Write the C-alpha cells for this entry.
Amino acid sequence: MGSTTYRLTCLSPVHIGTGQQWSKFDGAYHEGRWYVVDLDKVFALGVDGNELAQAMGSGAFSWTEWLRGRRISPEQVALYSLPCAQPPGEVYIREGIKDVYLRPYIPATTLKGAIRTAIVWYLLRHDEQAKAFARRYLILAVYAKDIGQIVNRLAKGNRQAEEDPQLHLRAIREALELDDTQEAEVFLQTLYRALGKHLEGARRGDRHERVRMRDIRDLGSDRRFLALPVERYLLGKDPNHDLLRVLQVGDSETTSLEQMEVGLVWTYHLDSSGKLQPKREQGMEYRSLAEWLKPETGVRLSLRIDENLFSEQANKVLRFHEAQKQAIHRLPEVCNRYAQAVIERQRTYAAQHHQPQLQEFYERLRQKLNGLPDGALLLNIGWGGGWEAKTVGDIVQEILRDDQLGENPQKGNINPDAPFPETRLVGYQGGAAAYPLGWVLLEPVRG
Amino acid sequence: MPNLMLKGKVIITGAIEAVTGLHIGGAAAGLDIGGIDNPVIRHPVTREPYIPGSSLRGKMRSLLDKHLGLEANKFIQRREPVVRVHECDDEEKYLQCPACQIFGVTPGDQRRDWNRLKPSRLIVRDVLLSQTHEATRRLREAKTDLPFTEVKWEAAIDRITAAAVPRQNERVPAGAVFSPFEMVYNLFDLNGTGIENDIQWLTHLLKAMELLEDDYLGGYGSRGAGKIAFRELKVLFKSRAYYEGKVDKPIVLGEGDTLRDLNVSQFAEKIRQNLGD
Ligand SMILES: [Zn+2]
C-alpha cells in the first residue's frame, strides 16, 4: 500500500493550539470580531512607544478603547481578525495553529497522535499478555511508595543491597502480600521492564541494568509519562523501534482564515443533583475562548505506509509482530473501534447526567460511524475532546476496578479515590451548548 | 596502476521546493539561537537555513539501496540506535552494483587492493535558500518566529492521564524554495573498459531523486515534515571534448519544471551520440 489521500471534514469545531494565548494586550474586540494587533503597524502610524507602554501598564488597558481614542480602526493595525463569539474581557483566547502566511491547517503530529492512541488502545484490548503487563505495572505504580519503603528498610542503608533484584522481589512480595513466588517473580520482571531494564542482566551484575530504590519509589509518579511503559511494551522500546515509524502522515493542506473563528468553550461539571452543568464557582465562570476551525471545514492530507519497515531485512532489527502489522494495515477499523468505544461512553455519560445537547451530538456521531463508507474513519483531534478521547483510560479503569484499586488513573502514583473524570468541555454555537470539540471524519479520495 | 579517465560530466541543476515544513537538524541550541529544542541547520555565514549536500546525498543513497533490495551490511554506528548502510565487500559484486558505483564506497579495509575501484561518480552541493525566488521574498515578509523559520509547539499527551508535555520544533515553512541545487555525475572510463555502465546507471540517480520526492528529507518525516519537490530542472552533458574546447556548448539532455517532464529514457542515447571521440 502506497500513499492514500484523504479528505478531512470537521464534524465539530477543531482547536489545535500553538501554546500561545492572546490576552487583552494582544488584540481588540470590535463589533463581533477579534483583531490581533500587529505592533509594527501601530508604530508605523507614528505612535509613541513610551506612551503606549505607559497606557498598557495602567491596568485598565483595552486596545479597543485605546484605538478608539486615537480614531484608529482595528482593521488598520490588525495582523488578522476573526469572528468572535463574545467580548473576551479578561478571558484568554487560545491561538489556533496557522502557517507563517496565516493559513490554518491540521498538523501531522496532531493526526498521528490521535492514530497512535487508537492503535495503543486496540492492541491493549486484543492482547491479553499486554493487558496483564499493564495491570501489573499499574498495581506496582499504586504500591510504588510502599515497595520503596520496604526496600529501604530491608537494605538498611547498604547501597548494594538496595540494588539487588532478590531484595526487590522480597519487597514486592511483602507489599503486595503475595504468597505465590512465581507471581512475585512476574511482578519483578514487570517492574524491570517498566523501568526499561533487563532483569536477567541485573542478576548477572550488569551495571547498566541496575534498578535503584528511587526508581522504584518514583514509578508512575510523573503523570506526564504514566503510560510510557505500556506504549513501549505495545509499540517498541524506543523511537527507533517504534511501530508508528511505519506510518507517514502529512500535514494537511492549508485552508483560509475564513474557516476559523473564536468560539466559546465552557467547562461543565456535575452539580449537586448529578446534572452536567456549566461550571460556576464563587462568582467565577469557567469559560474559555479558542480559535477553532468551524464545523464542515474540509482539507486534504495524505497517509503513507512505509512497507520497507515490514520487509524481511528490516525485520531483523525491528521485529514487528503480526498483531502490530495488522493494526497498521487495518487502520480505519482500528480507529473506528476506538472511536466507537469513546462515543459510547460519552453518549451514556451525557444521557445519565442529563446533558441533551451532548447526548444528541454523540447520537448523530454514532449513526455516522455506523454508516461510514469503506476506508473512512473518525478521529478526535486537538484540544477539548475530553480525557476519554485522548487516552486508553477505559481499559485502565477496568483494571483498577477489577483489582479494587479505585478508578482514578489521572494522578501520578495513581490516587485510587475520587470520581473521575469530573468535567467535560462543551463548545457553544449561537450562545447555546452544542458539541464537544475535535471530531473529524477522514474519507479516502478515490482516483 | 589503474588507468582512470574522465569522459564527461552530467550536471543536474534546479530548485528544491519544501512541499511541507522542512527540518534538517542543526547543532543543539547555541546561545545565538535562543534556546530552541530542535533547531534547523543554518549557514555559518548568512545564518539562513540550507540543505547540506550530504543530507541530500545520504538520503538518496539509502532510498536507492532499499529500492534495489541491497542489504545494509555496514555499521555506521553499532550502539543504539544502530545505523547501517549498504556497501559491497566483493569486487565482482561492486562492479555490478549501481548504488556503490554511483555513491561510492569507503576505500578502507580490503578495498585498497581492488584494482577496479572507481571514485564515486556523484557530487552533491549544498543548496542555499534561493536569493531570487518570489517564495524567499514572501518568507522574508511573513511574520516568522525566527528568520525564515517557524517554531512549532506540540504537546505529547500521556495516554493514561492526558497530561501534556510541550515540545518545540523549528522548521523551514512549506513553500520555501532552495536553489540553485547542483549534482555532478562523472562518467569514468577505468582501464579502457568504457563507460557504458556509467551511462546506464544515470537512470538510477534520477530514480533516487524520484524516490526522495515520495519519501522525506530531514527529521520528523513520519510526522509530516520534509516532503520536497525538485523543480526547474535542467540536465546538461559536458563531454571531454567540451572541456578540451572542441565543442562549444554543453548538450541539453533534458529540461522541465518537474522530474516527470524530463525524458530520462533518451539520456543514454544522447550521451553516446555526443561523446565526441
Ligand atoms: Zn553495492
Remarks:
- Chain B is about 25% helix and 30% strand.
- The first strand of chain B starts at residue 4 and ends at 18.
- The first helix of chain B runs from residue 53 to 67.
